[in-house]
Write a structure and sequence with these properties.
By secondary structure, this protein is α/β, with parallel strands linked by helices. Among the domains are: 55-95 and 105-173 and 186-242, no CATH class; 257-315 and 345-401 and 465-549 and 666-713, Alpha/Beta hydrolase fold, catalytic domain (Rossmann fold); 405-457, no CATH class. The strands form 4 sheets. The protein has a 7-stranded parallel beta sheet, with helices on both faces. A 6-stranded antiparallel beta sheet has the order 3-2-7-6-5-4, with helices on one face. Strand 14 (256-264), helix 5 (275-294) and strand 15 form a beta-alpha-beta unit. Mean pLDDT is 74; it is low at 1-53, 176-183 and 560-659.
Length: 721
């Protein structure tokens, strides 16, 4: 009897021995509840069933389960940790602790990994970090439908619960509460019944409760089946269960967030202001599935937060709308709400407003997150950014502090210097221009000294309040913006050429092969990477995939063997768009021998647009998979330093094409694999917005964000062994 009484909670003097269970509940109000640190009792359902002879009493806080419903879909249960805290807040609200008959003031309950709060009084949930017009309804579940474990509507559930307690409170349950094997109720008469508005409930025993619909069609069907010999319950009844299938425990808690990801939208947000919230939710849900499958052994957690920066901007007000003609207005409005953002960003008048809008929103979200999670910074929490489309360019400019006004001033200064050198002028004009030049130089020096003096006395706050660990670009036109700003390939192979590691530890450029807005970044660092294919992102379900850092480069246009041309001809031919020097053969088994093809391909990738897209995307064969050759070009080939049979030594190229001995420190361009039955023309339309729900991308993102945690876990396991 001691084991059975542990489910009793001391209400009305019955079974007071059960208070040691850790949760106490009282009559209807629930006053005087306490949440102890001790472990809560586990209900042995559905496996072993409830203990026999359990006393019917009010449901404990651990037996009630709270639910939420998004987008008018089915009710979803909160995890035990959240449900337990909501229920305790609900009971505190009902206890009337406010005095003078007023309800107690209960603070909102933080749920769903801290992304949402629940207002128990209004039975609504709302997001913490972003605005959402539609509130999310929440519901308290006490009675549940057999099989689906969906809760009955709260009004009906309360009536059934009240009737159940009035009729059976204090009685003992003689039958085992086994969910899998329940005795049939054929031949049993209902010992109690309750009429509801559209249904009625029959109790065949204390723990055998059935719900019946009172609709005319249901009554007719019930009459027919009963005349055929079937029982009322088995023919049309729905079995109900009191208390949820799982007991809520404080141990059922989400893992601690060690990495936050800000998801930045691109153009088109004005057209659908909630789009980035939905897209981030898709990415978050997809990442959860990947975490459960591949990273469940880690005690940390990655959280995705949407950054909606467009709706707060005023820009030109409604000036552009007022000058828009009425014909084909729908198409024009769509262009004004999407492509117009690019024009705003290239405008010197509105560019700063866009930059400040995103910068302030990033800092606001980070400060809010740290205020609600004070241990995040103390424990070395990391921040990454995932940007899409134009958002990549704005995020890059915020991190690097790029300013077109400063660039324009430098160009003007350069033009003045060239004018002084080249133009013929009289002695007096030359003397005045020289004085003007010297005065401007002196003015700049004074401004710089004044700026340094201010900087020494007043420390300027950083542009962003956090260091960016990883910057993921998706469907990004960043490369073409950088090319138009004068960025040209360098010689180092370092990411610092376009984004210093002191600002961002790792830059990764993700794109679909047919995305017309996406451009490659690697050829802006080393020119010969225009003929090296991007790294292929692994399929989500690939078994034992090769780590990305171990994948060897493969070439877009593998050339024929150089032995077909005479050695002297190959060595003496001057580099040109059609003839090119033979490159050093690498251990991955292919050599570049045709710079002309590579140059054409590189030009096509830089000058895409519609024609360039058709040329470079649809004209070439499907993406080359990452291949590795072993054997004839093994590590021994590297030691020979670039001489193979029939291949002359590499001459120095005056065309600017770099020696392939220079490689990138880390690969930057990563390409999604095309589907086997995917139409390239159709995917060119859909691919730019297809990143959010991709399991392949979710796995890719988490692989890099969990990389250090995974390495530390593996190291600790090895140390233990």
């Amino acid at each position: 009897s001691g084991a059975s009484l542990r489910y009793s909670t001391g209400t009305g003097g019955e079974g007071s021995e059960g208070e040691g269970a850790g949760l106490g509940s009282s009559d209807s109000g629930g006053s005087g509840f306490s949440l102890a640190a001790t472990a809560l009792p586990e209900r042995r359902r559905p496996g072993g069933g409830r203990p026999r002879y359990e006393v019917v009493r009010e449901l404990g806080a651990e037996e009630v389960r709270w639910f939420y419903r998004e987008d008018r879909k089915t009710w979803k249960p909160f995890i035990g940790y959240d449900s337990l805290r909501i229920e305790l807040a609900f009971r505190a609200l009902g206890s009337g602790g406010g005095g003078a008959g007023e309800p107690a003031a209960v603070e909102p309950v933080c749920v769903r990994s801290g992304l949402y709060e629940v207002d128990v009084a209004s039975a609504e949930s709302y997001p913490v970090y972003w605005n959402q017009t539609e509130k999310i309804p929440v519901m308290r579940g006490q009675w549940f439908i057999d099989g689906t474990w969906q809760p009955l509507e709260e009004e009906e559930s309360n009536l059934i619960e009240q009737e159940h307690l009035n009729r059976f409170k204090g009685q003992q349950l003689q039958e085992s509460f086994d969910m899998e094997i329940s005795k049939p109720v054929d031949g049993k008469e209902a010992i109690h019944s309750l009429k509801l508005s559209r249904n009625h409930v029959d109790w065949h025993s204390v723990d055998e409760v059935y719900l019946y619909s009172d609709a005319t069609t249901s009554k007719i069907a019930r009459t027919v089946t009963q005349k055929l010999g079937f029982s009322k319950a088995s023919s049309s009844g729905t079995r109900l269960h009191r208390g949820y299938v799982e007991e809520a425990t404080l141990e059922d808690k989400p893992p601690q967030t060690s990495h936050i990801v800000f998801v930045v939208h691109g153009i088109g947000q004005k057209m659908d202001q909630g789009r980035i919230i939905k897209n981030t939710a898709m990415m978050r849900d997809t990442a959860r599935k990947v975490e459960e499958k591949y990273f469940s052994n880690l005690a940390t957690h990655v959280e995705f937060l949407p950054v909606e920066w467009r709706s707060k901007l005023t820009l030109d007000g409604d000036t552009v709308d007022s000058i828009t003609p009425d014909k084909v207005r729908g198409l024009r409005d769509m262009l004004n709400s999407s492509a117009m953002d690019i024009m705003y960003y290239t405008s010197p008048l509105y560019r700063d407003e866009l930059v400040k809008g995103l910068q302030q929103e990033l800092n606001r979200l980070y400060s809010l997150f740290c205020s609600r999670n004070p241990e995040f910074e103390e424990k070395g929490g990391k921040v990454s950014i995932v940007s899409h489309s134009l958002g990549c360019v704005i995020t890059y400019d915020i991190m690097t502090g790029w300013n077109p006004v400063r660039l324009y001033e430098q160009l003007l200064q350069k033009e003045e210097e060239e004018e002084l050198e080249e133009r013929w002028m009289s002695y007096e004009e030359q003397r005045l221009l020289e004085e003007l030049y010297i005065t401007k130089q002196r003015l700049r020096e004074i401004e710089e000294r004044l700026h340094e003096l201010k900087a020494s006395t007043i420390s300027k706050p950083p542009v962003l309040k956090f260091k960016v660990e990883n910057f993921f670009c998706m469907g990004s036109p960043l490369a073409v913006f950088l090319a138009l700003r004068g960025i040209r390939p360098g010689t180092s192979g370092s990411q610092d050429h376009i984004l210093p590691r002191t600002i961002c530890n790792r830059l990764l450029n993700i794109f679909h092969p047919t995305d017309p807005v996406a451009y490659r970044l690697e050829p802006l660092i080393l020119k010969h990477y225009s003929n090296i294919s991007p790294v292929q992102i692994h399929w989500y379900n690939t078994a034992n995939p090769l780590p990305y850092e171990h994948m060897k480069p493969s070439f877009l246009n593998p050339s024929k063997e150089p032995t077909s041309a005479p050695d002297t001809e190959s060595a003496s031919a001057a580099p040109s768009p059609t003839t090119s020097p033979v490159m050093v053969r690498r251990h991955y088994g292919e050599s570049i021998t045709n710079i002309g093809k590579a140059s054409i391909l590189g030009a096509a990738s830089i000058g895409k647009g519609l024609g360039g897209m058709l040329f470079s995307r649809f004209g070439r064969s499907s993406a080359t998979p990452q291949t590795m050759e072993t054997g004839k070009d093994g590590p021994e080939g590297d030691e020979k330093k670039g001489t193979t049979v029939g291949t002359p030594p590499l001459p120095h190229s005056s065309s600017g094409f770099l020696e392939p001995t220079v490689e990138l420190e880390h690969r930057i361009d990563f390409e999604l694999r095309e589907g086997l039955v995917e139409s390239r023309y159709w995917s060119a339309v859909t691919s730019h917005t297809a990143y959010w729900s991709s399991l392949d991308i979710a796995l890719f993102l988490l692989t890099f964000m969990y990389k250090q945690d995974q390495e530390e876990t593996d190291k600790s396991n090895l140390d233990t062994l």
